[in-house]
Sulfatase
Amino acid sequence: MADLVRVEGGTFNMGSDLPSARKREKPVHEVELDTFYIAKTELSQQLFEHIMGWNYSYFACEFCAVNNLSWKNAQSFILKLNTITGLKLNFPSEAQWEFAAKGGNQSKGYTFSGSDNIDEVAWNANNAQKRSRAVASLKPNELGLYDMTGNLWEFVLDDMSRVAYQHSELKNPVYSITDDSSKTTMKVIRGGGYEFSAAESEVFKRDGATSNVRMPDIGFRLAMNDDAN
């Protein structure tokens, strides 16, 4: 089972008004979150294969993050894992993800998750040699979370909208177009990946991928609300 880190609830500024921020990352808005848990690392291929019995990841290695699976594939894994464990694990919401990536209430305001020097904390275009790497092999951020910048993009709960930040709830927001997970929608991915540069990997950056797409640079990490177990 992946190690979960308790993230104390709090209030933070989500998004950015920096010149490098795009419309999809604006405006900065204050968000309040309840306490939650988030996995210390991206989900490993070892755990995924143990639960599902298959692993189609590129760059196969048991301690590398599982990839080349869709948002829907990952939901099937989570459903099976919850049945086995009795927990209520899921993806983090986008707001939970960003709060944790920024260091939660211990944030030091870094450009990347855990440092202003991307190579200290992230496998990126400068150091990854165009492939994903074993999880937790670089420095963690303020909360002890690894690879929140770089290595793989990470799916979150939310549907992607370029104007979501203009209309989102201020407490525990989750932007969703439909509650029917069988429908194909554009999902938010966060964190950057192994082929992305520092300029593309600032901690507020967000992108999207359809819920049925499988890519070698997209994975996920688990999360759980504080009242879910």
Notes: The chain is about 15% helix and 15% strand. Residues 4-225 form a domain with the paralog of FGE (formylglycine-generating enzyme) fold (CATH 3.90.1580.10). The longest helix spans residues 71-85. The CA atoms of residues 68 and 214 lie 5 Å apart.
